[in-house]
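re the bet — no i am not wrong, look at it urself. input seq straight from the record:
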Amino acid sequence: MANQKLDARKLEDAASKLRAIAHPMRIAIIEMLDKNKQMNVTSIYEKLKIEQASASHHLNILKSKGVLESRRSGKNTFYSLKDNALKTIIECIDKCNQ
């Protein structure tokens, strides 16, 4: 490890993703999408009993950090977990704990 240089940009990117998923509401969204595979914004905010604006805010953060992906169908936007995004983050954390 002593010969490896720290890449500040990679460290900040990793920290940014961890901050994004560390919020209790975003953890709840991730858990719901893990169980349901895909949900629209209305379903998400109704199940979480939060305002639509709040749900959209959390969804946009998770999407911008590469955790979620979205697709539009008419007036609805459907969100799902991005393939392997969380798996990669968890595997990375596991490696750090060895």
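see?? Helices lie at 8-21, 24-36, 41-48, 52-64, 85-96. told u. also Residues 16 and 22 are 10 Å apart (CA to CA). so pay up
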